[in-house]
Design a protein that fits this description.
Helices cover 43% and strands 13% of the residues. By secondary structure, it is α+β, with helices and mostly antiparallel strands.
């Protein structure tokens, strides 16, 4: 696997950062990291997206809850022979209420457990390229690219208004 180069750019305005993100997306580069002194809601569509695994926890919780709700109702009716009006003990339609309620309960519990497990609320070291100025008044962009793309990416970032560009 070839070595990756890191291009670091500093911007004084959010507009410059937004232009750089658009230019990188148009150039086909998707491997970058953004540092900002405040949240950038407008730039959210330009950021690299990663899917959340919490949804999988919720789906598993829903399946477990539905199966558990129906199993609870059906098995208790079978064990205690709850025959009402000559109907069979395991009538599915009335047990939908229990199945639904346990589905909602299990989805909530599994989603909260997944959220807590995946929240990454531990202390981590800042990247070595992080500059404390990114927390004050400037915006930072770190883009990873192949060595043959490095000069092109650096020129692109300078063109859209980066104050400083460093290649590593």
């Amino acid at each position: 696997m070839s070595e990756r180069w890191r291009i670091t750019a500093r911007f004084s305005t959010a507009d410059g950062l937004r232009a750089a993100l658009k230019a990188l997306r148009e150039a086909g580069l998707r491997d970058y990291e953004v540092f900002s002194p405040y949240g950038l809601i407008e730039e959210e569509p330009l950021m690299a997206r990663r899917g959340s695994v919490v949804r999988a926890f919720a789906v598993v919780g829903g399946l477990v809850g539905a199966a558990g709700g129906f199993a609870l109702a059906i098995l208790s009716a079978e064990i205690y022979s709850l025959i009402v009006g000559g109907k069979p003990p395991a009538a599915i339609i009335p047990y939908c209420i229990v199945g639904f309620e346990l589905t909602i309960l299990a989805v909530a519990i599994f989603a909260i457990v997944g959220l807590v497990m995946l929240a990454r609320m531990r202390l981590t070291a800042l990247p070595e390229q992080y500059d404390p100025g990114y927390s004050d008044a400037t915006f930072g962009l770190h883009a990873d690219c192949l060595p043959e793309q490095a000069s092109t990416v650096a020129a692109l970032l300078r063109k859209v208004g980066a104050e400083e560009v460093h290649e590593r």
